[in-house]
Amino acid sequence: MTAGGPSPVGAAASTAAGGLLLRKLVLADAAELLPLIAAYGEALTHGEGNGDKPDLAYVAQLLAEPGVNIRGAFADEAAGRKLVGFALYYDLPEAISRRRAGQIDDLYVVPETRGRGVARSLIADIVAEGRQRGWIQLRWMVPHDNLVAQQLYDRIAETGPWKSYVIWLEPGISW
């Protein structure tokens, strides 16, 4: 959300509380996003991943993927603005309402900026975009063991009326 209200759909940038700059990430952001994607994977797998680390080509492919939206949060640092968090989300059809819904698939904040409103700001900005797009809801999943994130989500959202399931299709990969 901007200081004066929600950011417009597809807005280049908006400013959130704490001086965060929120904007859609573009191909030029791939090198800065890469270490966050790698750290996010490490966090989800608790360092027990399959050894397949993301590279710049993968992150560039992700940023160019049709239908994928990635919002970044930039904080002021001594050396300039630094990417400190991202949310990857989708605009999806919602069959029951015959409208659209948003789905956050991935949300990550670097450890040294956690607790400063980065995740809350990213979610609020996506909510503002969703209102303008006419979404009926914004939904996301959180790992059962991420209790800190769940504390935030319990304050800003309600628990969904469903349970999540997964069928792993590649042996040896799970988190």
From TrEMBL:
What lineage does the source organism belong to?
A: Bacteria, Pseudomonadati, Pseudomonadota, Alphaproteobacteria, Hyphomicrobiales
Q: Which of UniProt's keywords are assigned here?
A: Acyltransferase, Transferase
| PANTHER family assigned | AMINOALKYLPHOSPHONATE N-ACETYLTRANSFERASE-RELATED-RELATED
Q: Name one Pfam family in it.
A: Acetyltransf_1
Show the Gene3D superfamilies listed in the entry.
Answer: 3.40.630.30
| Protein species of origin | Chelatococcus asaccharovorans
Which residue range or ranges hold the N-acetyltransferase domain?
A: 20-175
Record's keyword annotation contains Protease: no
The domain of life is Bacteria
Listed InterPro entries: Acyl_CoA_acyltransferase, Bact_Acetyltransf, GNAT_dom
> What name does this protein carry?
Acetyltransferase (GNAT) family protein
What does UniProt give as the signal peptide span? none
GO terms assigned for molecular function: acyltransferase activity, transferring groups other than amino-acyl groups
Keyword Transferase present in the record's keywords: the answer is yes
